[in-house]
Amino acid sequence: METDGDLVHGAWLGTVDTDGTSRTAGLLGVLVGAHTTQRLELPASTMLPSLLRQLLLPVVLDAVGAPRTRREWTERFGHGCFSDAEVELLTDYLGPRRYGGRFRILGGEQPFAQVAGLEALNGETKSVAQLVPSIASGNNVPLFSALTEADEMLLTPGQALLWLLHAHCWDTASIKTGAVGDPQAKNGKTTGNPTGPLGQLGVVVPVGRNLFETLMLNTPILPDGLDPADRPQWAWDERPAELGRKSPAGPEWSTRPAGGLLDLLTFQSRRIRLIARETEQGPRVHRVIVSAGDRLARTPEWDPHTAWSHTAKPKAGQPQRRPRRHISGRAAWQGLGTLLALALPVEGDGPYTSALLRQAGDLRADDALPTDYPLGVEICGLEYGTQSAVVENAIGDSLPLPVASLLAENDWLRAAILECASQADRAGRALDNLDNDLRRASGGDPLPRDRGQRPSSRFLHALDGTMRRLLAGLRTVGEDDDLLERAELAWELSVRAAAVREAEALLAAVPPRAVVGRVEKVNGKDVVHRSGKAVGAFYKKLAEILPRAAEESSGGGKATA
Question: Model pTM?
Answer without folding.
Answer: 0.92
